[in-house]
Design a protein that fits this description.
It contains 13 helices and nine strands. By secondary structure, it is an alpha/beta fold. β3, α3 and β4 form a beta-alpha-beta unit. α1 runs parallel beside α13. The longest helix is centred in the N-terminal third of the chain and has 18 residues. It is globular, with a radius of gyration of 19 Å. The chain starts with a strand and ends with a helix.
């Protein structure tokens, strides 16, 4: 049986605030735990008016404190924004507080614009090209300290928090394979190289102290409802968010609008078709068919689901349907 996880963007809704977004994330995680989701991940984004998880490790701790057994983690931490020692200390602390429940997914994109990158790094020489070196350094800080080691992450050393490599290109696949780490592909928003990256990762994978054989997680958008018409209506919020992001106009999550769906021109439809190639919008049967096809095509060990829905109760219902579908496949 394919495992299933959840990626929450901690969306700030139009007319709502940050506290509401954080409360909804906690509620979603508590339901995900009850419905059998394997893990609940949050992502690092900065300078986004519609995302409340910029201080990702803090939100992870908040969610972990409100749940009992589900794994909680980062999908992911954008490592070029940080010193590896700081991330080791943060996630070592989380592991000490919530033993065997914390995941650390690492990405090399900044998760923001260049001006915000400069504000984040100040005088640090952050460089995405140093990402492999930073990952190895971070793995060392999370491992048992070596005799004579001058810098020890406290907390962090010996915590052995599970580390994932996340990406949307062949680069991440190659790095995860060479280090023998699990690999998560961001096919929920950048699906173009999914199959090529997964094949490359599996072909080049080197067994390691972390993992004996390759392990693939793939992202998938889902908007499920009791009827396909309702799901299509709810999906307008996510579609608008994607279009606005590509236009350089990100903002708070907007309420659903049938008029927005009808107003989409050929260029926007083509854009959404490309971005949402790994997605399902519809009733239970529609979602089940598309998910089965996706699992058959990728052979993914685990699917991580995303889905921006304005109404919280409708979002809960959507992920409940997904859990029921995954349990039946």
């Amino acid at each position: 049986m394919t495992r299933y996880a959840m990626l929450d963007l901690c969306s700030i809704r139009e007319g709502g605030g940050i506290a509401d977004a954080l409360a909804n994330s906690v509620s979603l995680a508590q339901h995900a735990e009850k419905w059998g989701y394997s893990r609940f991940w949050l992502a690092e984004h900065h300078n986004f008016a519609g995302i409340a998880s910029a201080a990702t490790s803090l939100v992870i701790g908040h969610v972990a404190a409100a749940t009992q057994s589900i794994r909680v983690g980062a999908g992911g931490i954008m490592l070029p924004n940080h010193a590896p020692l700081v991330i080791a200390e943060q996630f070592g602390t989380l592991e000490a507080l919530y033993p065997r429940r914390i995941d650390l997914g690492l990405g090399r994109a900044p998760g923001t614009d260049q001006m915000t990158v400069n504000a984040l790094r100040r005088n640090l020489d952050g460089d995405v090209n140093q990402f492999p070196r930073d990952v190895v350094e971070l793995l060392g800080f999370l491992d048992e300290p070596k005799p004579g080691q001058a810098v020890v992450a406290t907390p962090g050393a010996g915590s052995k928090v599970p580390v994932w490599i996340l990406g949307s290109s062949l680069f991440g696949a190659q790095l995860a394979a060479s280090l023998g780490l699990p690999f998560g592909f961001a096919s929920h928003f950048a699906p173009a190289q999914l199959n090529e990256a997964v094949q490359l990762y599996r072909h080049r994978f080197s067994p390691s102290r972390f993992l004996d054989e390759p392990y693939v997680m793939a992202g998938f958008n889902v908007i499920a409802a009791d009827t396909t018409n309702e799901a299509d209506y709810l999906a307008s919020s996510m579609r608008r968010a994607f279009v606005n992001l590509r236009r350089g106009q990100p903002g708070k999550l907007q309420p659903p609008s049938a008029e927005f769906n009808q107003s989409l021109g050929p260029a926007d439809k083509a854009l959404l078709s490309q971005i949402m190639a790994c997605s399902a919008v519809g009733d239970r049967d529609t979602v089940a068919a598309k998910l089965q096809a996706f699992i058959d095509d990728t052979g993914a060990n685990e699917i991580i689901f995303a889905g921006q829905i304005f109404d919280h109760e409708a979002r809960l219902r959507s992920f409940e349907i997904v859990a029921q579908v995954m349990a039946s496949l």
